Amino acid sequence: MSWRDDLGGPKGEPRIEFVRREPAFEGFFRLDRVHMRHLRYDGQWTPVFTREIFERGESACILLYDPKLSLVVLVEQFRGAAARGEAGPWLVEVVAGIVEGGESPESVARREAVEEAGCTVSDIIHIGKYWLSPGGTSERTDLYVGRVDASAAGGIHGLEEEVEDIRVVVVPLDEAVAACGNQITTAPAVILLQWLALQRNEVARRWGVEP
């Protein structure tokens, strides 16, 4: 875009310098303490400063959609970090998973659709790649919409070894969109539902369904 500068400094020099990286914690996830500096917009370097960065890696999220029935398949599960929220830690979300070594984001999205919701994705649309909270975490996620048959979707799913207890929630697309910001409060779900609400006719035509 014309309003976005390139990432090079004067004469193409880097605009950021990582001075030192230290592990601060390593468990299920990793937290690094990073000492860095960068070029300011006036061309001068900042002092070296320190940030703790939650190294969560890549993830994939997929909104499961049945265009014939105009239903979306969502999941509800416990999220400990949301325990302080007004509505409590059981959140309604889209299917999601972490990308591990050797996997592609699309393969993760397809696999998690089976594990978390018992649904097989017959076609898939890649929406884009997004930073989730770049002020503190390295996580980026690929967002997808996947075609499924929602006529028999439901039940409790998840992997026992990962202590997952996931309830499938099947609702009309319009009802899910209306719930954004109240019952549905996770960013990937809101982004995907609003995207699909705008693009549903194009998606239906792509999948050979009369809008």
Anisotropy-based shape? globular
Output the structural class.
alpha+beta
State the fourth-level CATH superfamily of the largest domain. Nucleoside Triphosphate Pyrophosphohydrolase
The main sheet comes to: 8 strands, mixed
Kindly report the average pLDDT value.
91
The SSE order reads: EEEEEEEHEEEEHH
Q: Span from first to last CA?
A: 33 Å
**Count the strands?**
11
How many DSSP helices? 3
Beta-strand share of residues = 35-45%
What's the architecture of the largest domain, going by CATH?
Answer: Alpha-Beta Complex
Reported by name, the CATH topology of the largest domain is Nucleoside Triphosphate Pyrophosphohydrolase
Number of domains: 2
What is Rg? 20 Å
Percent of residues in helices comes to: 10-25%
Would you kindly provide a brief summary of this structure?
Helix content is 18%, strand content 37%.
Description:
With 211 residues, this protein is an alpha+beta fold. It folds into two domains: 46 residues, no CATH class; 149 residues, Alpha-Beta Complex (Nucleoside Triphosphate Pyrophosphohydrolase). The chain is built from three helices and eleven strands. The strands form two sheets. Strands 4, 5, 6, 7, 8, 9, 10 and 11 form an eight-stranded mixed sheet that branches. It has a three-stranded antiparallel sheet with strand order 1-2-3, with no helix packed on it. Strand 1 and strand 2 form a beta hairpin. The longest helix has 20 residues.
